[in-house]
TrEMBL record:
One of its GO terms (molecular function) is serine-type endopeptidase activity. It comes from Bactrocera dorsalis. Residues 1-25 form the signal peptide. SUPFAM superfamilies: Trypsin-like serine proteases. This is Chymotrypsin-2. One of its GO terms (biological process) is proteolysis. Keywords: Disulfide bond, Hydrolase, Protease, Serine protease, Signal.
Length: 278
């Protein structure tokens, strides 16, 4: 699940020129796909969780990402919750592979969406409260630091993780045995950089607000459907720190390198988050 937003028509020709240049100069590394590279075997991203919905077919379906911020609180996007039946929502934690039988599944008891949330406009943030607490062992599961109101500017190296779409668009008619071409079961990771809000606005996201932060990288990298709600993380001297939550992007993911991915800016909501950690 990811929201998609049209970018400014005034930048369309410039975008095509940048895309053409990127195609002719980009690497031929076939492992570079939308959503990134496999997290290596034996390694975990311990703060990353899969939000899963119990469907009418009586199976759990991944639909969004999220991050552990305390033993019983998950940070995610508002659009991953709004209108959903909380009784069918669960969190799968402690896994690299969604098929890992050793993962921990916990039901969601409630979710809290920010009062100012407007789809594709502002405040795309929510906190899930779990029925029980996760055992944060520091290996398979641990909380990510989110505290702090410092502004993150452009040019900061960041890492995105998620189980979202691997291709720029979904291929809806694949047989079940080839579904992994669309959606991976192995957690993907990609590194790229933040850009300033001014640069993001100039790149086509003209309705950007101070509640958002943008990032972009090389061609065929970035967030896509299924990555929504997941964490954008930077390294600091004190350790990893979450700076963003996957919110929205171009409807054809990762193809036009000039068009950035848009994230909810976590630092803006520091007081709101801390008030819900009690």
């Amino acid at each position: 699940m990811e929201l998609f937003k049209k970018f400014s028509v005034s930048h369309f020709l410039n975008t095509l020129l940048c895309f053409a240049d990127a195609v002719t100069s980009s690497s031929t590394d076939s492992t570079r796909i939308v959503g990134g590279h496999d997290v290596p075997p034996g390694e975990y991203v311990p703060y990353q969780v899969s939000l899963q919905y119990f469907t009418r077919k009586n199976k759990y379906q991944h639909f969004c990402g999220g991050s552990i911020i305390s033993p019983n609180r998950i940070l995610t996007a508002a659009h991953c919750c709004k209108g959903f039946d909380v009784k069918r929502m669960t969190v799968l934690a402690g896994v690299r592979d969604l098929n890992d039988s050793e993962g921990v599944r916990v039901k969601v008891s409630s979710y809290d969406i920010h009062n100012n949330y407007q789809e594709l406009v502002t405040s795309d943030i929510a906190i899930l409260t779990l029925v029980g607490s996760l055992n944060l062992d520091g290996i398979r599961m641990s909380a990510i630091e989110v505290r702090g109101s410092d502004h993150v500017d452009g040019g900061v190296p960041v890492t995105l993780t998620g189980w979202g779409l691997r291709l720029p668009i979904s291929l809806p008619f694949l047989p079940p045995e080839l579904e992994n071409i669309n959606y991976p079961t192995i957690l993907q990771t990609v590194n790229y950089h933040t850009i300033t809000n001014q640069e993001c606005t100039y790149s086509g996201m003209e309705d950007l607000t101070e509640t958002e932060i943008c990032a972009r990288g090389a061609i065929l990298t970035g967030a896509c459907s299924g990555d929504s709600g997941g964490p954008l993380v930077m390294k600091t001297s004190a350790g990893l720190h979450q700076v963003g939550i996957v919110s929205y992007g171009l409807f054809v993911c990762g193809v036009f390198t000039v068009i950035p991915d848009v994230y909810t800016r976590v630092s803006i909501f520091d007081d709101w988050i801390q008030a819900r950690m009690l």
